């Protein structure tokens, strides 16, 4: 099984000419609780192997699970934020299958009684349109351990001689969020998939239930996809592409599977219902295990755990803790800040909403906040491969410094270009905006004598322009201002220069 | 209904990860057939409209606070392992799956 | 001091220890000596912890000498069924697959015994993973009945029943999934209680069937059972199914032994036909004793009990098939490579180990449970069984509307001969016909000796059942009956058991 060469695929447009895609997305989110789902072991990422394990999460004989109260609350809050109904009574179930990274050889999960069901999430696409993704269910379960495959060429499972298992991750609370079939997206299917996962990530972040780090695996996505002949309204055989773990990959995986399915179907073949592996590096999927009757999970109600039956009061109390939905919050902030649609989208794409919010709250104008966080900082962060908030945090650059910088401008000490220099100094680690301005000698010249002398010399050197202005062509003043600023080496206030020129030429 | 074939038993043994020998399979088909015939009588009970009972006591909402408790030391965790390496449980090669 | 410490009850030992007449070391030593003398014949123990028991005895003796306040049973030694996790002591569940496994933690129940200062003598034999009614399914060989070494001591807890019946320990811990405390008690002339489900923590009890298992006392007297019940009972936050309420007043009930005005229900379906005549005769006499003590007898009907055995043998294997999946050679226990396979996969090693490490009965039940849960059969088998379970619980609720307790013979027969039912699983299963309904409904039950059956001179058992959380009623009835029977016999029934040197001859 090669992981570098894909199967034959049709072009995306060609595929869509003949087929309608249907998608189903399953997202697993690791909750950010202090302890595991069913025991008191800590959940910190990156600990030494097998240091966060106990009889319960190791599945030792005799050990019993007890549900983490915060995990249940988080599950209910996620359900509510996804506009779901919350079960008034539900049970855990055992999903039985053997796998070395699963200590009990069953996963404690939920089967036909999920804690949350029948919801939706509205996702906004690039063009501003909104697609409603319906949520089938959100249920609680536990994560598995992690295997290190030894002896194979590339650390992959294939060709390994043995594996080494670390159970630190086993038992970490997971919420699995499953969509209903997403239909009618046509050419927007890849974008809808990506936008859904992105919107879900924002929502979970706002709920503060998970750190939603796809790169660390705390949020993982499986993509189900099928094609049916255009307009048939039917559902084709689906494949499930596992562990598609970045937003970009979600989009690519959908696109790839659409092309692959179309090639198989148009060639007269049929799709095998199977698990596919996504290869981030090559952007293709390869065949995994075939879903057969061997996959009989023998679910039954977990006898070691009692039912979860949240009262109406409990659910409503949790509803009251929900933050403003990210989409609504975005609309509100855009109105408050007076940004254009384009400006708001740029701010969103750059992940600046929270930073700007903090900066405005610290006393900056929304325009200044946007300007200073999206210019040079963004360029530098991008070069470093970081997003602005983490880059700024690493550098120790704060909203208060933006407020200070704006104050220097509105207070008349710096003009715009001086302010840019000061900000660069801040980013270079030279100190606060004031310290940089002091150190670099940035200061508008307040002595009008020097400015008046410069104006006189520029008027003398440009008699034609001066004559035009005297004659009423006031707009020509720009050329003279530029020269005055040049003569002053930038350390003058352009508005004052303009006023003096016009006075000298009888237009004051 | 209670006709369990040798293939059925072999399939179930596979699901249950027990490598039954041919002799064991032969024997178990007969034994299970007798037991199944007997336990299948549950289907004759007047259970229409009866709520299944999974738990003997009607408890609900038993949870614990999200507070860390001491874990085992890695030595204790690995003490019973048939094989260990790099502070991990060493297991034979895993057939292809995720 | 002429008391034979091995024959003293736990209550008597507690008094002697409190009075300072004997030390815990002396008691422990006497019991260990008894084990050295007789356990070769009885085989109650899989593991004896002489060193640990004596160290615990010395510790409690020191504390007593220092004037510390101690638990009533402090210093009284106990044996623990090998299905309970004991830190530092092997825990095999009678199975090859766990041979040599030493848990890194204590079961809650074991921790409570240690906190109470009770030396743990060792781990008792059992049918593999508690599947059986005779201990013949132990991978380490059967235990034997002190009344007749050719007969079974009951199961699965035959090690715990025989250890108290052979005076190797005054107390033992058993577990009861369908009768594994009560049926062994019945056939060895001892006392055993299955508390209300959730009354004793299951944390550290290696699960057979999670919704049926319950640990409880195995003793020689009703009062001893109540005293032990009180030590091990009560809420445990580590067990989600543990009842968050005080232990019912079991010791008080055992001491009062009062049944006046109590309504005793005889279950029509669990008497008469199918019960050995001698067992039935002793049962009828026992009921008359209770009437003489002031109780009133009523007859109740539990029509759904006829489906109980079938429901039980679907629910138990289903849960067991899942509970026993963890024994896979990856993290602990046996690891076996398949013959003739070069570089076997984890999957192959799992399957080979489970074939080599599990005995026939365990494999049979795992396969049966796997079938009952598999897609396409779930509703017909597991689903129907869960509905029958509800019907049985409803039958009990109705019966307890007209009776305060229900009584039955504990087991249909006295102890059968080793090997008699080994090749007939269904015949073996029928031993539990009277004990299973209580496990399905979660209610408590107690078995005490009712006398010796005329036809074979072997002990018969009398079972008392009470509503959930009314465990104290078991002890009221049990103690009242025990007092009258002991008076009628002129001493404890076990005094009539053959001396061990006699039977080992």
Arithmetic mean pLDDT of chain B:
93
Radius of gyration of chain B (CA) equals 22 Å
Q: What is the percent of helical residues of chain B? A: 25-40%
Return the structural class of chain B: alpha+beta
H and E order of chain C:
HHEHEHEHEHEEHHEHEHHHHEHHEEHH
Strand content of chain B: 5-15%
Order of helices and strands of chain B: HHEHEE
Assign the structural class of chain C, choosing from mainly alpha, mainly beta, alpha/beta, alpha+beta, or little secondary structure: alpha/beta
Poorly predicted runs of chain C are none
CATH-level-2 architecture of chain C: Alpha-Beta Complex
Q: How many domains, in number, for the residues of chain C?
A: 1
As a percent range, the share of helical residues of chain C equals: 40-55%
Question: Biggest sheet of chain B, open or closed, and with what strands and sense?
Answer: 2 strands, antiparallel
* Count of beta strands of chain C: 11
Work out the helix count of chain B: 3
Largest inter-chain contact set = B-C, 56 and 73 residues
Structure, described:
Chain C: Its EC number is 6.3.5.7. Chain C: Keywords: ATP-binding, Ligase, Nucleotide-binding, Protein biosynthesis. Chain C: Pfam families: Amidase. Chain A folds into 3 domains: 12-317, no CATH class; 326-440, no CATH class; 448-504, Orthogonal Bundle (Arc Repressor Mutant, subunit A). Chain A is 39% helix and 18% strand. Chain A contains 18 helices and 15 strands. Chain A has helices spanning 12-18, 69-81, 189-207, 247-266, 312-319, 326-337, 341-349, 353-362, 366-374, 376-383, 388-395, 399-410, 416-427, 433-440, 448-461, 463-470, 477-487, 494-504; strands at residues 19-30, 67-68, 85-86, 93-96, 106-109, 116-124, 130-142, 146-150, 162-166, 173-179, 219-229, 239-242, 274-279, 284-290, 300-301. Chain A has a 9-stranded mixed beta sheet with strand order 3-6-7-10-1-11-12-13-14. A 3-stranded antiparallel beta sheet of chain A has the order 5-4-15, with no helix packed on it. In chain A, a hairpin with a 4-residue loop joins strand 13 (274-279) and strand 14. Chain A starts with 11 loop residues before the first helix and ends with a helix. Chain B has 98 residues and is α+β, with helices and mostly antiparallel strands. Chain C has 505 residues and is α/β, with parallel strands linked by helices. Chain C starts with 9 loop residues before the first helix and ends with a helix. Strand 9 (162-166) of chain A pairs antiparallel with strand 3 of chain B, so a sheet runs across the interface.
């Amino acid at each position: 099984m090669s992981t570098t060469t894909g199967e034959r695929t049709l072009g995306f447009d060609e595929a869509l000419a003949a087929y309608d895609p249907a998608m189903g997305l399953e997202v697993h989110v690791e909750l950010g609780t202090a302890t595991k789902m069913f025991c008191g072991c800590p959940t910190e990422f990156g600990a030494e192997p097998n240091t966060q394990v106990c009889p319960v999460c190791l599945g030792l004989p005799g050990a019993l699970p007890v549900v983490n109260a915060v995990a249940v609350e988080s599950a209910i809050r996620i359900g509510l934020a996804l506009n779901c109904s919350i079960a008034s009574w539900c049970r855990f179930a055992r999903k039985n299958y053997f796998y070395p990274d699963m200590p009990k050889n069953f996963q404690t999960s939920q089967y036909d009684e999920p804690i949350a069901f029948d919801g939706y999430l509205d996702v906004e696409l690039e063009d501003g349109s909104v697609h409603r993704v319906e949520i089938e269910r959100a249920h609680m379960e536990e994560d598995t351990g992690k295997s290190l495959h030894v002896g194979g060429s590339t650390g992959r499972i294939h060709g390994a001689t043995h594996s080494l298992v670390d159970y630190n991750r086993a038992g970490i609370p997971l919420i699995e969020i499953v969509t209903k079939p997403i239909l009618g997206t046509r050419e927007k299917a890849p974008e809808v998939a990506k936008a859904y996962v992105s919107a879900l990530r924002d929502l979970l972040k706002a709920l503060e239930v998970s750190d939603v780090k796809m790169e660390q695996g705390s949020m993982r996505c499986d993509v189900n996809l099928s094609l049916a002949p255009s307009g048939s309204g039917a559902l084709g055989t689906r494949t499930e592409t596992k562990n598609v773990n970045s937003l970009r990959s979600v989009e690519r995986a959908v696109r790839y599977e659409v092309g692959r399915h179309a090639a198989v179907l148009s060639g007269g073949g049929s799709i095998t219902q199977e698990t596919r592996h996504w290869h981030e590096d090559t952007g293709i999927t390869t065949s995994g295990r075939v879903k057969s009757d061997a996959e009989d999970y023998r679910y039954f109600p977990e006898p070691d755990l009692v039912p979860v039956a949240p009262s109406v009061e409990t659910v409503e109390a949790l509803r009251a803790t929900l933050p403003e939905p990210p989409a609504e919050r975005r609309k509100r902030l855009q109105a408050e800040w007076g940004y254009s649609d384009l400006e708001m989208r740029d701010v969103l794409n750059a992940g600046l909403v929270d930073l700007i919010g903090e900066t405005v709250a610290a006393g900056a104008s929304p325009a200044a906040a946007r300007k200073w966080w999206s210019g040079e900082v963004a360029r530098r962060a991008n070069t470093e491969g970081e997003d602005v908030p983490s880059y700024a945090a690493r550098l120790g650059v704060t909203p208060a410094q933006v407020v200070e910088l704006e104050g220097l401008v509105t207070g008349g000490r710096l003009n715009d270009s001086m302010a840019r220099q000061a900000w660069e100094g801040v980013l270079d680690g030279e100190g606060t905006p004031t310290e940089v301005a002091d150190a670099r000698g940035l200061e508008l010249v307040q002595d009008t004598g020097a400015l008046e002398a410069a104006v006189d010399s520029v008027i003398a050197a440009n008699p034609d322009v001066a004559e035009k202005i005297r004659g009423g062509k006031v707009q020509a003043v720009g050329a003279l201002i530029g020269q005055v600023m040049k003569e002053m080496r930038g350390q003058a206030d352009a508005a004052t220069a303009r006023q003096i020129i016009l006075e000298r030429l009888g237009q004051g | 209904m209670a006709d369990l074939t040798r293939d059925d038993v072999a399939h179930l043994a596979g699901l249950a990860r027990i490598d039954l020998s041919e002799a064991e399979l032969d024997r178990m088909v007969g034994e299970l057939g007798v037991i199944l015939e007997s336990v299948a009588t549950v289907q004759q009970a007047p259970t229409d409209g009866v709520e299944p009972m999974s738990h003997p006591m009607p408890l609900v909402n038993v949870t614990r606070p999200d507070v860390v408790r001491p874990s085992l030391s890695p030595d204790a965790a690995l003490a019973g392992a048939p094989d260990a390496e790099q502070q991990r449980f060493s297991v034979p090669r895993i057939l292809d799956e995720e | 001091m002429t008391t034979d410490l091995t024959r003293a009850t736990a209550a008597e030992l507690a008094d002697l220890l409190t009075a300072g007449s004997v030390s815990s070391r002396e008691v422990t030593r006497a019991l260990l000596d008894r084990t050295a003398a007789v356990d070769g014949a009885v085989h109650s123990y899989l593991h004896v912890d002489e060193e640990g028991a004596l160290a615990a005895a010395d510790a409690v003796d020191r504390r007593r000498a220092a004037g510390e306040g101690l638990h009533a049973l402090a210093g009284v030694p106990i044996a623990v069924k090998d299905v309970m996790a004991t830190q530092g002591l092997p825990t095999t569940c009678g199975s090859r697959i766990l041979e040599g496994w030493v848990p890194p933690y204590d079961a809650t129940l074991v921790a409570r015994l240690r906190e109470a200062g009770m030396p743990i003598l060792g781990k008792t034999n059992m049918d593999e993973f508690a599947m059986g009614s005779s201990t013949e399914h132990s991978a380490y060989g059967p235990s034997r009945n002190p009344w007749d070494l050719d007969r079974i001591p009951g199961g699965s807890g035959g090690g715990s029943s025989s250890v108290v019946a052979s005076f190797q320990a005054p107390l033992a811990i058993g577990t009861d999934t369908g009768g594994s405390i009560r049926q062994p008690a019945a056939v060895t002339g001892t006392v055993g209680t299955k508390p209300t489900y959730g009354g004793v923590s299951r944390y550290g009890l290696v699960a057979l069937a999670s919704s049926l298992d319950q640990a409880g006392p195995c003793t020689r007297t009703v009062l001893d059972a109540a005293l032990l019940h009180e030590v091990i009972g009560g809420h445990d936050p580590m067990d989600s199914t543990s009842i968050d309420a005080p232990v019912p007043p079991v010791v008080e009930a055992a001491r009062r032994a009062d049944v006046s005005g109590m309504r005793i229900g005889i279950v029509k379906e669990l008497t008469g036909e199918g019960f050995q005549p001698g067992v039935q005769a002793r049962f009828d006499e026992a009921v008359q004793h209770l009437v003489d003590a002031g109780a009133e007898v009523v007859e109740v009907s539990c029509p759904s009990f006829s489906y109980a055995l079938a429901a039980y043998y679907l629910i138990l294997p289903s849960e067991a098939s899942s509970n026993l999946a963890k024994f896979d050679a990856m993290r602990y226990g046996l690891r076996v490579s398949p013959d003739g396979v070069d570089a076997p996969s984890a999957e192959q090693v799992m399957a080979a180990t489970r074939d080599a490490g599990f005995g026939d009965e365990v494999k049979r039940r795992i396969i049966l449970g796997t079938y009952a849960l598999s897609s396409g059969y779930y509703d017909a088998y597991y689903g129907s069984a869960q509905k029958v379970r509800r019907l049985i619980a409803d039958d009990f609720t109705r019966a307890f509307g007209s009776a305060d307790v229900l009584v039955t013979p504990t087991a249909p027969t006295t102890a059968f001969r080793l090997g008699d039912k080994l090749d007939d699983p269904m015949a073996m299963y029928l031993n539990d016909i009277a004990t299973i309904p209580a496990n399905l409904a979660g209610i408590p039950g107690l078995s005490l000796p009712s006398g010796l059956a005329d036809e074979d001179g072997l002990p018969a058992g009398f079972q008392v059942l009470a509503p959930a959380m009314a465990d104290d009623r078991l002890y009221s009835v049990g103690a009242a009956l025990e007092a009258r029977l002991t008076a009628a016999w002129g001493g404890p029934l076990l005094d009539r058991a053959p001396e061990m040197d006699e039977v080992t001859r």
